[in-house]
Amino acid sequence: MRTKKVKQNVSLLFFSLLIFSIGMLFTTPPPANAQTVEELQNKIMQLEKKLSAANAELQKIKKTPAVETEKKSNKIQFGPLKIGGAIRANYVIGDYDTNSAGPSRGGHGGNVEFDTFRINLDYAKEQWIGKLEYRFQDGYNFLHTGWVGYNFEDKSQIQVGVNRVPFGPGAYGISQSWFFDQHYYVGLADDMDLGVKYKKPLGNWDFDIAYYLTDEGDWRGSSADSARYSYDVVDESGSGYEEKHQFNLRAIYHISDIAVPTDIGASFQYGMLESNGSQDDGDHFATSVHMVNKWNNWKLASQLTYYKYDIDPYTNQSGTTTEELVDMGAYDYAYPVAAKAWIPGVSLSYYLETPKIGWLDYIIPYVEYSSIVKEESSFNDSELMTIGIAWASGGWYCYAEWAKSNGNYFVGNDSFTEFGANPNNDWQNRFNINLGYYF
Hints:
Layout: H1 37-62, E1 76-78, E2 81-94, E3 111-125, E4 128-136, E5 141-151, E6 157-164, H2 182-185, E7 192-202, E8 205-215, E9 232-233, E10 241-255, E11 262-275, E12 282-295, E13 298-310, E14 314-315, E15 321-322, E16 325-330, E17 333-338, E18 340-350, E19 352-353, E20 362-374, E21 382-393, E22 396-405, E23 428-438
Antiparallel strand pairs: 1-2, 2-3, 2-23, 3-4, 4-5, 5-6, 6-7, 7-8, 8-10, 9-16, 10-11, 11-12, 12-13, 13-18, 14-15, 16-17, 18-20, 19-20, 20-21, 21-22, 22-23
């Protein structure tokens, strides 16, 4: 085991000076009798369209399941501050060799283990807002979220601190599952970094622009640089790379006045890779197109992404000297990832309310597929398929999933079943139940 180092926490208490001005325009309406009957009818039709669109948006909000936002129950409140959290346990059984050395979250062979305990703080007073989340895992802990923000009168918002990087169609990418899809494991879904993000709605558009000084930092664990929630380029050897100065842009267009409401979007990311060794600094970029289609309670989410890490050859944590692999880490563990790849992904889910079952609020069955299609010809692709169902009851939330993969460390227990070279290309299975109570 590596020597445990002193972790360097990041400061979360920044504030940006927000200066804005409001202009008022005064107009005098024309007399009512100056308008024709036809003009009044046109105005009525326009108002009816706006009312219909508002009702559609209201219904969409009512039908938004907890898995798409944040799973919450009743929280303790002190004025503008709400205190909540969650505790989760995990059951896993797989068809792989339980004596192998590779990692697998939750253990092997049909056992139940502690998953996580988290504390959440939510602040809202007038237009000021803030969020803080800290998580405790088995043997390590880390900051998940920590930012302060401001809501402008035009519905735009700024966040400063450790916040979610705007990339992909939503907070969790395309996924509804506990495993997520392969975007998450290469740092392109549900990624938290330290910086400033500005969100702006404009008609049917939603725009995000962000700058991140660095990743969310390494916290308390036994690894050299991987005690964190989201996957980043990490330096386990002391002579690798770390993420710095990252820029993100995202645009999503909402089409609501058709039979199948659709969100079409694109995301772009570019950043530097700071070298801690003798090799030169590098850089990285990713670009993605994504779409979400909703029909009644059905939801189809799809995404196609290309990413590239441009680095000099260096010796990664597995002892390989190459420019085709880069170390990425989270949950107190790091592994090599292909430096250049495409990621197609798709998720189909159905949201079903259960008013006739008193103890159950709703269920969400889903099926998902994603793959890391690598440019290096000697590398095997890393595919992941998940079939599962999520259910909610008050503060309780549960995932029951069967995952099948030929290239995901957490499905199986084979050190060769990986996101990098993946030489064995073996398909392995894992059945997983994650049960949590959110308060």
